[in-house]
Amino acid sequence: FGTCRVGMLCPVGRRAAASRRLLAFTRRLSSSSEPQSVRNIGISAHIDSGKTTLTERILYYTGRIGAIHEVRGKDGVGAKMDFMELEREKGITIQSAATHCAWGDHDINVIDTPGHVDFTIEVERALRVLDGAILVLCGVAGVQSQSITVDRQMRRYSVPRLAFINKLDREGSDPDAVIGQLRDKLRLNAVAMQIPIGVSGDHEGVVDLLERRALRFSGPGGEEVEEGEVPAGLQAAMEEKRAELLEKLADADEEIAEFYLAEEEPPLGVLRAAIRRQTIANAITPVFMGSAFKNKGVQPLLDGVVSYLPAPTEVTNCALDLDKDEEQVGLTGVSSDPFVGLAFKLEEGKFGQLTYMRIYQGKVGRGDTIQSMAADRRKVRIPRLVRMHANEMEDVESVGAGDIVAMFGVDCASGTTFTDGKTKLSMTSMFVPDPVISLALVPADKNAPNFSKALGRFTKEDPTFRVHTDDESGQTIISGMGELHLEIYVERLKREYGVECSTGNPKVAFRETASTRSKFAYTHKKQSGGSGQFGRVEGYLEPISSDALGQGAYEFDNQLVGNMIPPEFVTAIDKGFREAMLKGTLTGSPVMGMRVVLQDGLAHAVDSNELAFRAAAQGAFKQAMATAKPVLLEPLMSTEVAVPAEFQGTAVALVSQRKGTVNSMEGAEFVTIDADVPLESMFGFSSDLRGVTQGKGEYTMEYKAHVPAPRDKTELMVKKWKEQQAGKSEE
User: Which of 258, 289, 508, 725 has its CA 20 to 30 A from that of 683?
Assistant: First the structure.
């Protein structure tokens, strides 16, 4: 079928083409595509920026679905990618969902990720395996707190991205301001590829700056793309923005710089190649715009995905060679080389564990035997291989490098690398943030058989969801990234496993640290007939940063001179200090932000062993902390509150009541308040905010740092801890 541009169907043939695309796409399902024609992308953004709405349009325009359904739609169907019942009830994405579609001659694997910070691990593991991404931004609110988090995650894995400024149909939308925020707040070299034809209620379409053409979208679902002349009133703005595009591109690309300095117009093909080259190099971020809800601007964005985001072979992926002391080796991304794949996400399906896998090199088929690179080096056979379309599965016989698929019947942990056994390569692990909040979980029926099974499944699926039993109370404690995170799992226990649970008061993850340097000189001596235990350690401990107490985790600095302590015992000393730091001296909370420096010591020819030096280190830690002026640390949350302007004063007062510090306020009709608030003060904030703003206010928060707690809170916590210890002693 004919195209106006790359991937852009002429209006006449669009409806008929949708069915032809679906037929052609179905034929391709059973075989793998060439890596050069594959795009693996994630769609990420702040909550309520329109990610899932955008994904729904992508699926519709690529012929993957036959009708558009909305998030919390009135038809009761809901968006395709929000398939969990809880997602459709709450109108948010909880789990990342994968699908596969085709645009022109290219296959696109799409992962729609959550926007709420509580489910940030879903974004983390998606970006770990993707080659490119679309950063969606609200045309009114612009760059928000989770936008910053997502950008940080993209940078961590060097993921090239396009930006899509959404919701240009809303009052107060301002794409120029959003582009300015991309440059100022995210430090991105944002380059506008389009300008809007009208905003708010007048939004009709966009102007393509490269081709100097106006694009309007019509038809029931916006499927008809009409190209025409640029309105006279936008000619000057178009030329100004096009000149800005060329200038920013010339700063990043030498070939375009030559044209720019010679004051010559680069050919369109050269321009597109330069944009692609610098996008993949993360030197620029092309910015597209439109309104997914009003079906405008999505098809040009798909053109951008194909034209500017990398194929799997254009991204550098590295693995560790386990046979060569974890030497880093590059992966080719070629299907003919030995197989390497990474299991990045687990789900419990009706047919057993569903394991999502990214193929980095080689190919794999149904019935093949692959080998885990985990400690057990277990070989497993793949009984079934599927492509995912949200919660639907389509069987495939084989897949090659660059593909994202799912396997049934392969039991493994998240993050496991698989090979064909010919190589011993392992992919590097992804970043997993620590939980910030805990709850006591009490099942209504203490003998419920599914309780432990459910918690085991949840911890396997989600690395940020932790479970442990409290030593003092014997209660089951669940920990996670926020109130909503834990609330969702409690609700899933009830719905999926029939286990009713009540929860205790939220427990904040307090920490302890030392505020000053303190020396230790401790001897552990134990004699009980025969060989005994002896170990002496000397040195000091201190905060890693005296300016920001609690910064960092733990550092061990061995400054021993000579062999007063044999080298084989140094590891045991390090381990002893690590174990001692699990329980501080103030409130029994873990200790962080500490550096231990070992300077001297003494060993006995017969009585010294690893156990003795571990015990010596633990005793030395308690000795030093007694004079180190220990400090209680509490988690501080970076909080963003968004309210209509008339509620600005009320919202600021609410933040202040909760001992928060307001850092900045931005916006005219809709105000965004940036503040730092102690986590313990944020419980119940959501209902209070809705109450004072007539349900119009919303907020997000994410962990910022642990900071010293106020004196009164510290004294209260210490008193409570001492009473608990006294009670245990009496028992």
Answer: 725
What are 38-87's pLDDT values in tens digits?
899 988 888 778 888 898 899 889 888 877 776 554 455 555 555 556 65
Check: CB of residue 651 under 8 Å from CB of residue 643. Answer: yes
Residue type, 477: I
Determine how β-strand 363-365 pairs with β-strand 398-400: antiparallel
DSSP 516-545: S-EEEEEEEEE-SSSS-EEEEEEEEEEES-
Residue 151 backbone dihedrals phi, psi, to 5 degrees: -60, -40
Task: List Cβ<8 Å contacts ≥24 apart for 473-477.
Answer: 473/440, 475/440, 475/441, 475/442, 475/504, 476/440, 476/441, 476/442, 477/438, 477/439, 477/440, 477/441, 477/507
- The size of the chain, in residues, is 731
Q: How far apart are CA 248 and CA 257, in angstroms?
A: 9
Question: What is the SS3 assignment for 564?
Answer: coil
Radius of gyration of the chain (CA): 29
The answer to whether 126 touches 154, Cβ cutoff 8 Å, is: no
Find where tokens 């834990």 sit.
486
- DSSP annotation of 297: S
**What is the DSSP secondary-structure string of 463-493?**
TT-EEEE-TTT--EEEEESSHHHHHHHHHHH
Instruction: Map tokens 């939004």 to a residue.
Output: 203
Which amino acid appears at position 253 of this protein? D
Q: Is the pLDDT of residue 378 over 70?
A: yes
Find the mean pLDDT for residues 662-683: 86
Task: Enter the DSSP assignment of 11.
Answer: G
Q: What is the mean pLDDT of residues 624-648?
A: 89
Residues 679-686: contacts with CB under 8 Å, at least 24 apart: 679/436, 679/437, 679/508, 679/634, 679/635, 679/636, 679/637, 679/703, 680/508, 680/634, 682/637, 682/639, 682/658, 683/483, 683/506, 685/654, 685/658, 686/483
The encoded tokens of residue 668 equal 């005219």
pLDDT > 60? residue 530:
yes
How many Å apart are CA 1 and CA 21, to the nearest integer?
A: 10
Instruction: Give the whole-number percent of the chain exceeding pLDDT 70.
Output: 89
Q: Would you state the pLDDT for residue 657?
A: 92
Residue 701 one-letter amino acid? M
Name every residue whose Cβ is closer than 8 Å to that of residue 398 and which is 6 or more positions away in sequence: 31, 32, 363, 364, 365, 366, 385
CA 133/CA 159 separation, integer angstroms: 7
The predicted model scores a pTM of: 0.71
Q: What is the DSSP letter of 162?
A: E
**Distance separating alpha carbons of residues 375 and 426, to the nearest angstrom:** 11
